[in-house]
């Protein structure tokens, strides 16, 4: 399944990306400014939405996903450099980035607490942190269903947790949340944060 998922990711996501997801991504990613770090860039689906004036370092731990980004890098309006790296061990100096972007990726990160520590480390004071994620629903029956399905879902979908509570992870990491927008009954959220340095 590890080799199949990257090949079918774009095909599986096309119906969603051609509808509301495209607008959500474009609206969120267009907020990015300065030097940008994209976490888990996958096949580069966000690359067309970066506006001129930014430069992007995009990390992706799956080489099969990263291999599919070439066309989107060439078509992008901004310089994009990809790195084979994990969010828990970012290959960048402290205080390097003005904006961090993560879309539909925090569900797959094995150690999201460590990843958030690393994001804080490489972000400049006051940096923007922009997320688009699916989350555990705040409804007892649906939340428990997500809990029940997650072990099998992780095996099929490259480690994706259906039941990850990203908002709580951010709060516990001391990352202030400035804005949350809810979509599809709260299953998907856009989250805007500011990075504070101790």
TrEMBL record:
CDD domains named in the record: AdoMet_MTases
Biological source species: Planococcus shixiaomingii
A molecular function (GO) term: methyltransferase activity
GO biological process, one term: methylation
Boundaries of every Methyltransferase type domain copy: 37-130
Name of the protein in question: Class I SAM-dependent methyltransferase
SUPFAM superfamilies: S-adenosyl-L-methionine-dependent methyltransferases (SSF53335)
Coiled-coil features, chain-numbered ranges: none
Keywords, in A-Z order: Methyltransferase, Transferase
Source species taxonomy: Bacteria, Bacillati, Bacillota, Bacilli, Bacillales
Keyword Transferase part of the UniProt annotation: yes
